[in-house]
Design goal:
The chain is of the alpha/beta class. It is about 40% helix and about 15% strand. Helix 5 links the parallel strand 4 and strand 5. It is globular.
Length: about 140
């Protein structure tokens, strides 16, 4: 892990605490020059099941940076990517994946782990707590 990893994870984790009308998942896609795209989950707002933060970040980065592949980029996300996002990260050739809270998705498919570096559990407790509180409130249950 690099010092930059802690910087970006801290930034998106803090931002996730401000995103409470959606599932609080925030993503930063950062290239080698330090330029970034920061997105949030917009599934509910846009009424579209594929508007995950990772997908939106990939789309915006390709458009803004005028590139097809993001092989010099690191993607930071507050929650372990789902299978859909995992495939998008793989297809986009993103070099590194750093995430906070673990999910039941098990982002460890051999196909992917041979393609890029994965670091999980950065600010895990803070991100897990936020997600647990969000879903508890959504379901009107106690934590």
């Amino acid at each position: 892990m690099f010092i930059d990893d802690l910087y970006w994870m801290n930034l998106i984790t803090n931002r996730a605490y401000k995103v409470y009308s959606e599932v609080p998942v925030v993503c930063a896609l950062v290239n080698l020059n330090g330029k970034s795209i920061i997105t949030e989950n917009y599934v509910e707002r846009n009424k579209c099941p594929i508007h995950h933060a990772e997908i939106l970040a990939i789309q915006q980065a390709c458009k803004k940076w005028k590139c097809k592949f993001l092989d010099q980029c690191t993607i930071y996300v507050t929650l372990e990517p789902c299978k859909m996002c995992e495939e998008a990260i793989y297809i986009s050739r993103i070099f590194r994946v750093v995430f906070g809270a673990f999910s039941n998705q098990q982002f460890t498919n051999q196909k992917y782990t041979n393609s890029y570096n994965i670091i999980g559990g950065v600010y895990e407790k803070k991100n897990s707590t936020l997600l647990t509180k969000f879903f508890s409130k959504l379901r009107n249950t106690e934590v």
